[in-house]
Amino acid sequence: MLDVRGLSVDVGRGAQALRVVRDVSFTVRRGEAVGLVGESGSGKSMTAFALMNLFPSPLARVAEGEVRLQGRDLRGLDAESMRQVRGAGIGMVFQDPTSYLDPLIPVGRQIAEPLRAHGRTDGLDARVRELIELMELPQPAQTARKYPHELSGGQRQRILIAAALAMRPALLIADEPTTALDVTVQAGILQLLARLRRELDLGILLITHDLGVVAETCQRVNVMYAGEIVEQEAVGPLFAAPRHPYTQGLLGSILTPRSRAHSLFSIPGAVPIAGRWPSGCRFHPRCPIARPGLCDVQPPALLGSGLGEGADRCHLSAERGSANAWTTMAVRA
């Protein structure tokens, strides 16, 4: 359904342009949730904005690549055609509902706004009530008349999801939809997304820094680091036997049922500043097994099945397999 090939994003113009996303390729099928995971600054949100051609800065632009939705080339569309795709083809949910809901307008009117923008005004009130009920919110008619401040954080996020789905899009992009919510509310939002995916045959691209969210919600996952995808895999195999040292480090830094068998640790250093990437493998300054003369010189390719599973960007994958780079480091020490 969604097919992204070789997507690159630049910020700036001419010689001053910085490539903040490079050669990103992935797919999302109908009825499937795919995760895009990584630390802050890895390029996740910029990738999402590129799919919508809706950047937060006028200096950002798609420099290369293809974005196809249900076979339609989105990069070839003019501004008006792309506006029609937003909402009708792709819906997007952002991480902070208070920034996207107008405090002076009842939430029912805000849910209806995409319908009005696309000229779908027949049966507007009934559709709004239907969407509120779909979000599992009580008393749809009364809820529609409430203002954002009268709702909880989780309820406001459900209102944003309702607005994003008003035009029945094939794809929902959810950018950190559970950030700043407490654990029980977060679980409710994730369960809602899973139900919507099944019932509406909805494709979901879930952008998050939280691997626990990916484990609960997604079928496949793309791990991003420094503007590139470094590993693609089905969720089960990725959690059982991650291959890229960065993915292994991420999983080693979170609490899981298997954490008792080893000490939690953090990956040293930080994600490089966008556009000022290290030479060679972008992870090599933080990697415990980086090989001088190779990893710091030659950029690795993303090698694997080519089907969005079993691929990683590491020079040493063929000889290491899924051996844990951080355990290897500890043994050598």
From TrEMBL:
Residues 4-251 form the ABC transporter domain. Keywords: ATP-binding, Cell membrane, Membrane, Nucleotide-binding, Transport. One of its GO terms (biological process) is transmembrane transport. Pfam families: ABC_tran (PF00005), oligo_HPY (PF08352). The keyword ATP-binding applies. SMART domains: AAA. Its main location: membrane. It is a peripheral membrane protein. The keyword Acyltransferase does not apply. One of its GO terms (molecular function) is ATP hydrolysis activity. It is found in: Cell inner membrane. PROSITE patterns: ABC_TRANSPORTER_1, ABC_TRANSPORTER_2. GO terms for cellular component: plasma membrane. Gene3D superfamilies: P-loop containing nucleotide triphosphate hydrolases. NCBIfam families: oligo_HPY (TIGR01727). Belongs to the ABC transporter superfamily. PANTHER family: DIPEPTIDE TRANSPORT ATP-BINDING PROTEIN DPPD (PTHR43297:SF2), OLIGOPEPTIDE TRANSPORT ATP-BINDING PROTEIN APPD (PTHR43297). This is ABC transporter domain-containing protein. It comes from Pseudacidovorax intermedius. The lineage of its organism: Bacteria, Pseudomonadati, Pseudomonadota, Betaproteobacteria, Burkholderiales.
